[in-house]
Specification:
This protein has 72 residues and is mainly beta. Helix content is 11%, strand content 29%. It is globular, with a radius of gyration of 14 Å.
Length: 72
């Protein structure tokens, strides 16, 4: 599990970003969200504080984690 935080100050687009502890873009002012298994869980929690939230593209972008194997 990772520890997640949401910044207090919105970005240019008006969205607050969710970050993992240790992110290179970690905000100066933040709210501790708690430990979560996924970024999506932290994002859901952050919506209790702010209506417009997004994940940090550096530390917790919501990407597909598909694995492909070469059978040849």
């Amino acid at each position: 599990m990772d520890l997640y935080y949401v910044n207090n100050e919105p970005r240019e687009a008006g969205q607050h970003q969710v970050h993992k502890l240790g992110c290179e873009l970690f905000p100066l002012t933040y709210i501790y969200l708690g430990p979560f298994s996924t970024c999506q869980e932290a994002l859901d929690k952050a919506r209790q504080y702010f209506p417009r939230v997004d994940v940090c593209p550096s530390c917790c972008a919501l990407r597909s984690k598909k694995v492909f194997f070469d059978r040849g």
